[in-house]
Amino acid sequence: MKLMARRNSMITSIGKSRWNMSVCITVLKNSIVFLFFFFLLVLVTSCRRSSTINTPNGEYKMIDCQEINGGKFKLSSIASSFSVIPLETNDSCLIGGISKLEFYDGKIFVLDKMHSARLYVFDTQGEYKFAIGKRGSGPNEYMQINDFSIDKEKNLIYVLCDKKKLFTYSLSGQPLGTITLDFFADAMEYQKNQLHFVCDRLDRGNLIVTDIKGRILYEDFPNKRMGDNLLMLIHPFSKQDSILLYRIYLDNKIYEMQSDHRIKVAYEVNFGEESIDFEDLEDIPHREVKKKLANSRGKIKYLTENRNYIQLIFFDKQMPCVAVYDKRQGVTRSYTFENCVDDLTGLQYPLFEFTKGQDEFIAILSPMDIENAGSELTEKGKAVFKDVNFVDDDNPILYICLLYTSDAADDLLCVD
User: What is the pTM of this model?
Assistant: First the structure.
């Protein structure tokens, strides 16, 4: 009996030991699983690491918009001459609006993302040549086109489609490959072997930078800090030669993208005491922000930059204003939009959205803009526009102003 009891005791002890060992193994397995997912989280987080914003004191330039001049601003004070390029109209290239354009390699690349969802190519006289890409649901096709950018070293065109697909084409429109991004993007720009994207998802950064294969290098400016005030700019990027500028909605700083995951504050716009500090918008309801904007100065809507000038469109108590910053002199002049005069052509003052080369600003005109000017056209305007067709549904006209390139005038930004 004692032997039997001892045997049963040993069996019970062994059972308990096995149970304890099983528990230990289960705990160990759970620990390993936990550590695996922990390190995976660390890896993902490191892949989404932030950039370094490099802003040494005194290195960035201030664009002073504290004072709005009451006089008239004449376009001739910064522009010496102008030319126009009417874009050909036919059934293969019906343009509802120009979202982006770029001059390169004797061609004009014109993006219409809102209406026809196509990227068209014209020669420098405005004659239509071909379209890049194809709409559809099949392989190598897209339903929506968001943006494009040109790699001028390798002569490649990157086209962002359906917010998630990146197509690569030759300058002649030949498809060369497709990348599927692991995020959604609204805008893009290529610069120095990197692709820069703007993302509108609250759980991601507003700026995401990848290599040319779409692998994330870093992301920054988290959208969650904007809360329900998150809006996408029409042109978040501005590229001039080797310099790429980036902006975010309601931020008065203008950033320059640099290598090695660095971002530099290139400019800051000073709107004075009537501006609003939007350091953190996450907890401010959008209706409150709109009320503040209605009684303040700021909200930069457009930025256009060339070698010597930056032009901003901003709002002063909901009134559109124009600021022209002369880089050479470090001088800014601001005016209400209604006080800006196009004395070169006699048209209403144009909205310059694009650039050509280093010294030109480009605005988009419709034939009706010219017809409506009527007798207000200057002699030069009449001479240039006399051959322009005035059919309502014709394609837009590129209005190109050549800006001054020397310091010949002591005060080009004059006030009448």
Answer: 0.84
